[in-house]
Amino acid sequence: MKAYVAAALAAVLSCATTPAAAQITLEGNGARADGEWGGELGIGYGVGAAGFKVTPIVGAFVYAGDNDRYYEDNNGGNPRCRDGDTGRYAKSSYCDNTAVNIYGKVEATYSIPLIATIGAGVRFSERDTTPYGTVALPITPGLKVKGNIGDGYYAVGLRLGL
């Protein structure tokens, strides 16, 4: 009888120490956020049980920002970056209008195995805070196509659970 108790205790402890639903999550989305179109690249860590999961995510929203000072001057077929204030040539990197905003998200989801994952989240950025709904459909085990929709926030992309 002691062997059964020890086996049961070992089984319980092994389940308690191995968070089966905890996983690192990577996401890549095309998105409309903060009034701009761009891409989201994020990483999170989800924890849950019985199909429910909470996943905090941090990432970068990359988009074409506004840069009125520097522009590409054709210069007789040889484009060069020019400073609009001084008229002088500038480093070509100044004409790159790429902008990056850091964001954070928290998602609470429920997974229906082999069918879909549905839930809600909140996206935090320096410009605003946006609640949204989310749905993800499995492509392979661990890889899902995912969509988010909220007030002024839309995203479609891939989510990988490691």
Entry summary:
With 162 residues, the protein is mainly beta. The protein is 10% helix and 62% strand. The relative contact order is 0.19.
What radius of gyration results from the CA coordinates? 23 Å
What is the H/E order?
A: HEEEEEEEEEE
Task: Work out the oligomeric state of the chains in this entry.
Answer: single chain
Q: Which range does the strand content fall in?
A: over 45%
The class by helix and strand makeup works out as mainly beta
Q: Tell me, briefly, the overall form.
A: elongated
CATH architecture of the domain at 21-65 and 98-161: Beta Barrel
List the helices and strands and how they pair.
Blueprint (H helix, E strand, L loop, with lengths): L1 H16 L5 E11 L2 E14 L2 E13 L5 E4 L6 E4 L14 E15 L3 E10 L3 E12 L2 E8 L2 E9 L1
Antiparallel strand pairs: 1-2, 1-10, 2-3, 3-6, 4-5, 6-7, 7-8, 8-9, 9-10
